[in-house]
Amino acid sequence: MRIVSLLPSATEIVCALGLADQLVGVSADSDWPPEVVRRLPVLNTVSINADEMSSAEIDAAANTGHTGASLYHVDTSLLRDLRPDLILTQEVCEVCAVSRRDVELATRTLGYTPTVLSLSPVTLDQVIDDVELLGRTTSSNGTEVAQRLRARIEAVRGRARTLERPRVFCMEWLDPPWTAGHWIPEMVDLGGGRDELGTPAGPSRRITWPDVVDYAPEVIVLMPCSLSLERIADEFALVQRLPDWSMLPAVDTRRVFAGNTQLFSRSGPRLVDGLETLARMLHPDVFSEALPLGNALKLRDDGRRLDPYQ
């Protein structure tokens, strides 16, 4: 089978299923596993260059996507040359990745009809279901991979079940502030916290900073979608300048973290890595296993910047 993945999380699922050799093309933001994707042709371009824009400028440009103008262009000529049997896409967020609408427009030029599979989970359980769905679609053993992921989730749930649950704010964008949705509040709950600002299984949303101050979070996790840990650290000053920042309980106790956003925003197998990372942030005495370097940062004792956290 010849597979084109236009969604980073789908690329990761394909590789977790042992089908990397069947991938013939990927999206521009598919960067994991690096040893697989670096050898594959890229099928799309993005109309904005986020590396040269501020967070506020990225937010404004992303709003263009919400009004109907796509941020993505699919290379139809390359798609014809690759002749995929299966194209993987999504319908959760038209500004986050190539959408099903983009794919359907591109496939009109192919001269044949490939299978288009849209993965659109909004809960952690649905993410695991998609692993099984893709396994069935490709005649691979998705059930075994899904069972391993569910076992890790249950291990975290069991250890966190009786723990005290701090108030958690998961900040999905820095300027302006957004609170996370979809599977993130569920992950906070599984990891032993409570997220009363996010919308479980719902979209992320813009939030007023006074609402965050009133909530008085005991733990803050910065996870701005698609930004690297290095960029989050560089832009941390934006957050520190917000009114009453130093008065927040999470800041006072230095329980401010940044998460590798690939482990939180991508609806693939590594969300379980994100869950384990989150559990360590919330309850380091219970989840004492060291994290892989690159999973997270933590506010230094002097309160000035973020340093690697394991």
Radius of gyration: 20 Å
Tally of structural domains = 2
CATH C-level name of the largest domain = Alpha Beta
Strands of the widest sheet, in order across it, are 11-8-7-12-13-14-15
Number of DSSP E strands: 15
CATH architecture of the largest domain: 3-Layer(aba) Sandwich
What name goes with the CATH superfamily of the largest domain?
Nitrogenase molybdenum iron protein domain
Cα(first) to Cα(last) distance is 40 Å
Report the mean per-residue pLDDT as an integer: 93
**Which fold name corresponds to the CATH topology of the largest domain?**
Rossmann fold
- The shape is globular
SSE series: EHEHEHEHEHEHHEEEHEEHEHHHEHHEE
How much strand content do the residues show?
15-25%
Helix content: 25-40%
Which features characterize this protein?
310 residues; alpha/beta; Rossmann fold; seven-stranded mixed beta sheet; four-stranded parallel beta sheet; 14 helices
Write a compact overview of the structure shown:
It contains 14 helices and 15 strands. The chain is of the alpha/beta class and 310 residues long.
Textual characterization of the structure:
This protein has 310 residues and is α/β, with parallel strands linked by helices. It is built from 14 helices and 15 strands. The chain folds into two domains: 3-120, Rossmann fold (3-Layer(aba) Sandwich); 163-309, Rossmann fold (3-Layer(aba) Sandwich). It is 38% helix and 16% strand. It has a seven-stranded mixed sheet. α1 links the parallel β1 (3-5) and β2. The N and C termini lie far apart (40 Å).
